[in-house]
Write a structure and sequence with these properties.
mainly alpha; Recoverin, domain 1; about 0% strand; ubl conjugation pathway; DCN-prot; Defective in cullin neddylation protein; cullin family protein binding; ubiquitin-like protein binding
Length: about 240
């Protein structure tokens, strides 16, 4: 802020005092309104994605969960995080939160991932994040966000240093993801992989499944009964989809 003129600095300070926003958000709003305070206030309050978070609160929250000798949140910290949120670690909302944090590895958060993710969600306390859980879960129902979360999950769940996703891990992730989308053949799909495939899942296979599911959902209504639908699935897969 030292590069700004005194008048601009005063406006930034006034904006921060009134709204409680960070300097970064204040600058964004003022620049968008050509440095008119009233316009900046209008811009700020009309943008739901610009949320007020307290950086000190976020640092304190991160320090609560990080390892004592490593600047990172590991398994124990994530477990305590889930306990404080009152959610099961295997709840899909933890995948959604990890997606917001752009976490690179399951059950781990760097300082940047954790704090940046909570800022993007617009919260700076466990209580505020707990209040957001219903809306975070609802993001799975949005087709565009589901696709992003689905594609994110592959690298997130993958073992470090591996190009493919272990079959057992992939099956668990698919069960979790498609339970929310009510795909009726998820159990048959997992059974097929265990019997016929029985090896790690490549990124291509992971990504293509979404398109495969779309096609199946279009044709399955023409086949009545679980047995007929199972046969359609197995026929498609046996014809070389994998």
């Amino acid at each position: 802020m030292h590069k700004l003129g005194r008048g601009s600095r005063d406006k930034v300070q006034q904006f921060m005092t009134i709204t409680g926003a960070s300097e970064k958000v204040a600058l964004q709003a003022l620049k968008a309104s050509d440095w008119h305070l009233e316009g900046a206030f209008d811009f700020f309050y009309s943008q739901p994605q610009i949320s007020v978070t307290n950086s000190r609160h976020l640092e304190d929250l991160y320090n609560r969960y990080k390892e004592p000798d490593v600047d990172m949140i590991m398994v124990e910290g994530v477990s305590q995080f889930c306990t404080d949120l009152q959610v099961d670690p295997q709840d899909i909302v933890m995948l959604v939160i990890s997606w917001h944090m752009k976490a690179s590895t399951m059950c781990e958060f760097t300082r940047q991932e954790f704090i940046g993710g909570l800022q993007s969600i617009g919260v700076d306390s466990i209580e505020k994040l707990r209040e957001k859980l219903p809306s975070l879960r609802a993001e799975i129902k949005d087709d565009h966000k589901f696709r992003e979360i689905y594609n994110f999950a592959f690298a997130w769940a993958r073992e470090k240093g591996q190009k493919s996703l272990a079959l057992d891990t992939a099956l668990g992730m698919w069960q979790l993801l498609f339970a929310e989308r009510h795909w009726p053949l998820i159990d048959h799909w997992c059974q097929f992989l265990q019997v016929r495939h029985n090896k790690a899942i490549s990124r291509d296979t992971w990504s293509q499944l979404l398109e495969f599911v779309k096609v199946l959902l279009l044709i399955l209504p023409f086949f009545l009964g679980k047995y007929a639908r199972k046969q359609v699935l197995y026929s498609c897969l046996s014809d070389g989809w994998l």
